[in-house]
Amino acid sequence: MPLLTIYGWGSVLIVLLYKNLYKMPLYNKILITVLIIIIFECLVGQLSYKYNKYHTWIYPENHIISCNGYISVYASIVWLNFVIILYLILDNYVYPTKSNFLVPPS
Description:
Order of helices and strands: HHEEH
Distance between the termini: 45 Å
Number of helices: 3
Helix content: 55-70%
Radius of gyration: 15 Å
Number of domains: 1
Largest sheet: 2 strands, antiparallel
Strand content: under 5%
Shape: elongated
Number of strands: 2
Structural class: mainly alpha
């Protein structure tokens, strides 16, 4: 696996998002974070091509791709799973609060 700066910036973005969204219910945090990460991946891919004149990453043809080939459904599902696992760990073990519920209490 190549080491790209998008992984580092994406990780920083995820941590900053969590820090700003930590009081929200878990499913809201996950949804907002994954949507922002998908948009981030699309923008960084296009900017990388614009300034470097090459595609930093290319998804295989058997992936369902969008955003001019810069994001794929498979990669988005991987991001979703990563964010779910990370936020479950952070919510339950690192920053436990009463608002960290998958389903808000009634």
